[in-house]
Design brief:
Layout (H helix, E strand, L loop, with lengths): L1 H25 L4 H17 L4 H17 L1 H10 L1 H24 L11 H16 L5 H11 L3 H4 L1
Helix pairs in contact: 2-3, 3-4
């Protein structure tokens, strides 16, 4: 009986202490931001491979600053968004340009890769044409015009 009464009194005192702390912290403007930051930072650091103790110790200083100066920390967090947005836009733009070039410039002079063997064969063909009595020079211009024609000519 006595042990139950002591346990009940201790439990009541703990509950009262928690309620008093909640009431006292309710008026502090950045406490919810600090609690959120502490939890989010701890989870992030856990996902990066830290153990719980290390993650919590690393997250506490930033959470304290959030609790003391929530307006400044909000401004600092928001100031990091525009550079991240611009960087993401530029990366996506480069990706789309690469995909466009790969799809739309295939078969044109942009994707043409010459080799030494092909150059040697062309030179031999030109010398053979020059040595022959036929007028085959117009065939040489046709090859270049095929490489430089527009998309309207291909359709």
């Amino acid at each position: 009986m006595a042990a139950e009464k002591i346990l009940k009194n201790a439990t009541t005192q703990v509950k009262n202490g928690i309620n008093t702390a909640r009431k006292a912290l309710k008026g502090v403007p950045g406490i919810s931001a600090a609690a959120f930051d502490l939890g989010a930072n701890t989870l992030y650091r856990l996902s990066q491979g830290d153990n719980l103790g290390t993650a919590a110790v690393k997250a506490v200083p930033e959470a304290i600053v959030w609790g003391i100066m929530p307006t400044i920390m909000t401004a600092a967090a928001l100031s990091q968004l525009p550079p991240a947005i611009v960087t993401g836009y530029m990366a996506k733009d480069e990706q789309l340009k690469g995909a466009y070039n790969q799809n739309h410039k295939a078969g044109t002079m942009f994707s043409y890769q010459d080799s030494k063997a092909a150059l040697t064969m062309r030179q031999a063909a030109v010398q053979a044409i020059q040595g022959s009595k036929m007028n085959a020079r117009n065939a040489l211009g046709g090859e270049a015009s095929l490489m430089h024609r527009s998309w309207a000519d291909r359709m």
